[in-house]
Amino acid sequence: MSNCPNCGAEYMEGAAVCLRCGAALPAQPPVQPAAPQYQPFQPAVPPRVMLPPPAQFAPPQYVRPQRPFCWMDIFTVLGLVSSVVGYFFASVLLLPLGLIASIVGFRSDRNRGLAVAGIVISAIGVMIKIMLILSQAALLPDWFTNGIW
Predict the structure, then answer these.
(1) Alpha carbon distances (Å) from 107 to 76, 86, 101
(2) Residue 112 or residue 30, greater confidence
(3) What is the pLDDT of residue 106?
(4) Nearest CA to 126 among 82, 74, 73?
(5) Can you name the residues that pair with 10 across neighbouring β-strands?
(6) How far apart are CA 76 and CA 82, in angstroms?
(7) Is residue 136 within a helix (H) or strand (E), and if so which, with residue range?
(8) End-to-end alpha-carbon separation of the chain, Å?
(9) pLDDT tens digits along 55-71
(10) Within 13 Å and on the Cβ side, how many CA atoms surround 75?
(11) How far, CA to CA in Å, does 49 sit from each of 45, 52, 53, 126?
């Protein structure tokens, strides 16, 4: 919108006379649109997706408190080691010691599986040792030690 040079009233672009005073308005050259400038083809790049920053705090998780080692844990390890070593050396002493120590260690919640392994290994070893002692003392029948056939 432009103003009339005679009365100052606004008039529309391209009007020949002012509607208020009737004065002739200066002619303005028509505005030609600018020629579009062509740019070489460039493939469209997808916009970057802005991810939110990582969470600063993780949700709280329950952490079970660590209990200190106790004597029952030591008995569990002693029972397993003595039952395994008892198969090779001093089996009359180590196999019963492994059985008793593993039974005491079974009361602990921490190494219960290790204690069960010690109990099973030493119990089988004690049974084998008893069978060997009875066999060497000739207290078992011949068909039991040599088989039925």
Answers:
(1) 9, 23, 11
(2) 112
(3) 92
(4) 82
(5) 3
(6) 10
(7) helix 112-136
(8) 125
(9) 677 677 888 787 788 88
(10) 18
(11) 12, 10, 12, 70
